[in-house]
Design brief:
An eight-stranded parallel barrel has the order 1-2-3-4-5-6-7-8, surrounded by five helices. The chain has one domain (12-270): TIM Barrel, CATH 3.20.20.220. The protein is 42% helix and 16% strand. It has ten helices and eight strands.
Length: 287
Amino acid sequence: MTGLSDASARGVACFEVLPLGRCEEEARQLPEPAWLTVTCSPKHGPDRTIEVAKRLRALGHDVTPHIAARMVRDRDHLNNLLDEMAQAGVHDVFVIGGDVADVAGAYASAGELLPHLVEHPRRPRTIGIATYPEGHPKIDDRTLAAALEHKSRFATYVTTQMCFDPGTLLTWLREARASGMSLPVMFGMPGIVDRRRLLEISMRIGVGPSMSFVRKQHHGIRKLFTRSQGTADELYDALAPSVRDDPELNIEGFHFYTFNQLVDTWRWERGKRYHGDLAQGSGKFSG
């Protein structure tokens, strides 16, 4: 399984939305199709994610639903999810463990679900997995490294957890490449999001070291409570040269965590794309 092989296609962007609130309204306002990823809510589970993904697909967007392994009840549940995706023309899936305490069925982690998924007759063409350059608040680094090695056998691409420090992302990626991880990588970074919400979510998911970087870059905590365009600009500008000029790192582009501020993030990204020097991406992974 490979990602985009043509370097001219690097710089592809995907936009993560939450399956609640105004995400569909925002998606309708986009003037052209985009690659949207839909998270899996701990409250509503993968069924809500697939419902929203189908409606976004009907609007013409290229959609990737997240499936949380811990919330898949059994093989029949997995069958239903994949059948609905295939019928809607959704051919990419992002598999995570899931932030819920109780396991609903037989799959306690993404690594346990993936082997069943890749053998399924209606498996999607491409499969994404998550990785954590700054570690995970509930999983030690050695376990994380082993999990990534295992999950990579079944995946098409990797997306990093949201990070604010370009140095952390690039260091992690170089080390991952040295250890043999060859999948294309999407760098996860914040979109144009209210800074209070960004800080709240970051603390919850354990993005600690890079929050120190943000404070340093913005000269104090006060500026964390303004719009996040400064952070997004700095990250994009720091990472774009590696996306464009370092094919050995195999960075396909950016995964923007929008927290449903989709339109603002999309407009900002298009401004950076068309007024910067990053190659104009032509689409996402072709499995």
